[in-house]
Design goal:
The complex is a heterodimer of chains A (134) and B (154).
Chain A: H1 2-25, H2 27-36, H3 42-65, H4 69-92, E1 101-104, H5 112-131
Helix pairs in contact in A: 1-3, 1-5, 2-3, 3-4, 4-5
Chain B: H1 2-25, H2 48-57, E1 61-64, H3 68-73, E2 75-76, E3 80-81, H4 87-95, E4 104-107, H5 115-125, E5 131-134, H6 137-143, E6 148-149
Parallel strand pairs in B: 1-3, 1-4, 4-5
Antiparallel strand pairs in B: 2-6
The chains are: A mainly alpha (134), B alpha/beta (154).
Chain lengths: 134, 154
């Protein structure tokens, strides 16, 4: 179980670090992706585009490094719930938009694949947060 | 759990502060607050009939604001591809064939699509005055049975 815990931390943390770094690389494009979800007012879009990637990188790094494992896993869980809600409403509203999950690296559209991936990440992060006993 | 939540908040705040600080010095920084969008005016649009008429004169540039892959899958015949999201990289190439007074029609696809509006706004900033949007352009054009083509060339 310990090895599994380590591997899972590495995967979840790694995904967040990579996703965050890619977005830091191109904040303008990420801001566009956020705006496309039509959830935030224009005033907030850039602020989220500036801050969110760094939160992702920090939480992912801490999870990998094993510092504040549970708090960072909790933060990732909360973020995953928010991301899932965003993707879910985009699918529900038939928005034909780019996911933005990994910045411009992929032209992937919002859809069931993104939903499934995010759900898997949510389960993993949730397990690290709530169920794993040291 | 409570102290985990507290620490999670600390991480979130620290990340946000890092992001705000990085945006001060990053070469790729963006404004903290986005400039409000100007709502599209009725005069920004062109009707399908008028667009067709301009297309027939051959003196009007049609610019497809969608991504390269969408453009290659099918576009208005003669339209050039200038993806709104790659404007800075792709514009110089297009600039060589545009004059400031060239009549330009931009389009993308879908009533929700605002790529053509972004493209129009960028072009206007660069002092192209005669730019209009054919809304839901690709759909209305090919549904009307007007000339289209595929591939990465106009």
């Amino acid at each position: 179980m310990k090895t599994f815990h380590f591997i899972l931390r590495f995967i979840v943390g790694g995904v967040f670090v990579v996703a965050g770094v890619l977005k830091i690389w191109n904040p303008a494009s990420f801001a566009g992706d956020i705006a496309n979800y039509r959830l935030l007012t224009e005033t907030l879009v850039n602020l989220v585009a500036i801050t969110l990637p760094w939160v992702e990188v920090l939480a992912g790094s801490l999870l990998i490094a094993g510092i504040w494992k549970r708090p960072s896993a909790l933060l990732i869980t909360v973020l995953m719930v928010i991301f899932l809600a965003g993707i879910g409403q985009a699918i529900y509203r038939h928005l034909d938009i780019r996911c933005g999950c990994f910045s411009t690296l992929e032209a992937r559209k919002v859809g069931l694949t993104a939903l499934a991936e995010d759900f898997a990440l949510l389960i993993a992060a949730g397990w690290l947060t709530f169920w794993y006993k040291e | 759990m409570a102290h985990n939540l507290q620490r999670a908040l600390v991480i979130a705040c620290a990340g946000a502060v890092l992001g705000l600080a990085d945006n001060l010095i990053s070469p790729r920084r963006i404004p903290y607050i986005a400039a409000p969008k100007v709502a599209p005016q009725p005069t920004d649009f062109i009707s399908l009939a008028d667009a067709k008429q301009l297309w027939q004169t051959g003196a009007t540039f049609f610019l497809d604001a969608r991504a390269t892959a969408d453009y290659a899958a099918g576009h208005i015949a003669g339209a050039y591809n200038l993806p709104a999201e790659e404007f800075d990289a792709r514009y110089p190439q297009i600039a060589t064939i545009l004059a400031p007074d060239t009549a330009i029609v931009t389009y993308c696809d879908g009533l929700q699509c605002d790529l053509s509006h972004h493209l129009t706004a960028r072009l206007r900033q660069l002092h192209y005055q005669n730019v209009r949007v054919l809304q839901n352009g690709w759909t209305v054009w090919h549904q009307a049975g007007f000339t289209t083509t595929t591939g990465d060339k106009p």
